[in-house]
Amino acid sequence: MNDGKIIVRARNLKKIFKAGRKQIHAVNNVSFDVYEGEVFALLGPNGAGKTTVIKMLLGLFTPFAGEVEIFGYKIPKERKRVASEIGAILEGSRNLYWNMTVRENMYYFANLKGKTIKDVKEDMERWVQKLNLSEKLDTNVGALSRGMQQKAALVCALSILPKLFILDEPLVGLDVPSRMEMEDVIKELAKEATLIVCSHDLRFIERVSDRITVINKGGIVASGTSRELRGEINYFKYQLVLRKKTRSEEYLKRLGLIPGVKVLFQGGDQNADAVELTLKGPELIYSVLDTLRDFEIVPVEINSLQEPFEEIFMNLVQKGG
After folding, report:
1. Residues 6+ away with beta carbon under 8 Å from 283
2. What 3-state DSSP class applies to 65?
3. What is the pLDDT of residues 104-132, one digit of tens each?
4. Radius of gyration over every alpha carbon of the chain, rounded to an integer in angstroms
């Protein structure tokens, strides 16, 4: 349990949209806390409600029910009191003016937050160098590639020195080297600010986040660190290398008859096989070993397989759906 200072407090958030006579429950009873200095991730499939939650945090949407507090101030009622402390990049939005240069955008948005050129110049130059934007500072944003526009929006938001930084799909439009740069920037930024990150790149989220909340169909289905989320999966995978005396595969059929055991034959020859087992409980490995003993098969290697985070995510979403 985290005993740190709460920066963002969301309680029982609901958002309902009307489509003709139909009501769409985009967000339903979502609650969470974000603590000072952490990287907090919101994950979910398209249409899960992540961006709606973010827009309620920023005061762009008013909740149908529930409440949001940032730095102890109620949002959207007291949004102006914290606006200068929040930086944000929203996916699918034009975060910059396209007919202005990158530099002009940076100074313009800093001014909107009550910052002078002198206030932001040093930090702006630091982030510009980190994101390899130096040669594009005097180029109109509309003439930049999608990836460069994303970088420019990031620098504009960073240059105001926000205490809370919200990024919705920060990897959109970025090539592989730029994605790696973004990962480094987020890790460095986490030393100076509290972050909320949404992304469909699950490996990226697992590498940069401290805690993850998974949303599906407007509600929270799981929360915790990546390790804790792995622990919510109620099955276990092992890879076995087996030494045997004959080419017979009869033992595979017997293993498949054990309740709670799934068998995937990975290959082999007359003397050895490689087999992947999925077990509903770790204790089932003993039933597997008993069956192998009946066939005079000796396991020479037993390796516990860590589930890829993408599969854990999908299992959690399906579990909560």
Report:
1. none
2. strand
3. 998 898 888 888 888 888 888 888 888 88
4. 25
